[in-house]
Amino acid sequence: MESQDAPNASSSKPQVRPDPIVNTITKEDVIDALAAGLRDFRSAPVHGLVIGAFFAIGGVLVVLTASALGMSYLSYPLAAGFVLMGPFAAVGLYEISRRLEAGEAVTWSGIFGRMWEQKGRELSWMAFVVLFIQIMWMYQVRMLLALFLGFQSFASFTEFLSEVVGTPEGLMFLAVGHVVGAILALILFSLTVISFPLLMEQDRDFITAMITSVRAVVTSPIPMIGWALVVTITLIASIIPAFVGLVFTLPILGHTTWHLYRKCVTIADQKTETIPA
């Protein structure tokens, strides 16, 4: 006869980790996060400026490549699409803020070591999400160009600009393009504003991270969309002077996003929960 006390393997139930808790925030929280981001930038200015400089150089190279390929008329949409990579470029900045918060030393070896640990993990999938939206941005630019301006090429950016602002078709292209771009930017913001810093700190799957990010935006739409507008305006202003502004603004935006993540999300008890039978 089998002992009644023997464990029954078939009765074991799967265990899951509790989802992150999403908090409601206010505009005051956004202002506090911005102040904390500025403090982080002042605490580690060299690291922030170097990361910002690499991002700015990348933007310049993208535009120069387009010019070298005879597609200088795409400089503006390419520049706008490039800044969509901002959330991924700010990964090192999130680690700097995390280290400052934890009282750990801010060193390049520590920052790059932490980033290297993400190789092959869920953060890599988030990079593909950002890349996919960037591809969608360029696809809709080409589609709208063909729709409103026909299948024509332009010898220079000046000629393209003259066509865009000097004809009804060009103005319509500009209006529709910015509306579609704003929608894509809002989607990207909602998917990434919380997910990147969450994945940097927590061992979570990228689907959970994106859902948590969208929940944060839906829970506090006015302050979060307000922050999205601040980010958008700041990035547009930063790329106008040949991307130089990104050297200074990217670090501040990145550090602020980390502190916004801290306010928006509370990590639940790390103990696993049992799924009811």
Please specify the SSE layout and strand pairing.
Blueprint: E1 15-16, E2 21-22, H1 27-43, H2 45-68, H3 75-82, H4 86-89, H5 91-102, H6 108-117, H7 122-149, H8 157-166, H9 168-192, H10 195-201, H11 206-219, H12 221-239, H13 246-264, E3 265-266, E4 273-274
Antiparallel strand pairs: 1-4, 2-3
Helix pairs in contact: 1-13, 2-3, 2-13, 3-7, 5-6, 5-10, 5-13, 7-9, 8-9, 10-11, 11-12, 12-13
Give the gist of this structure.
With 277 residues, the chain is mostly helical.
What does this structure look like?
The chain has 277 residues and is mainly α. It has one domain (15-104, 121-269). Helix content is 71%, strand content 3%. The chain is built from 13 helices and four strands. The chain has helices spanning 27-43, 45-68, 75-82, 86-89, 91-102, 108-117, 122-149, 157-166, 168-192, 195-201, 206-219, 221-239, 246-264; strands at residues 15-16, 21-22, 265-266, 273-274. The strands form two sheets. It has a two-stranded antiparallel sheet with strand order 1-4. A two-stranded antiparallel ribbon has the order 2-3. Helix 5 (91-102) crosses helix 13. The radius of gyration is 22 Å and the shape is globular. The chain starts with 14 loop residues before the first strand and ends with a strand. The model is unreliable at 270-277 (pLDDT under 50).
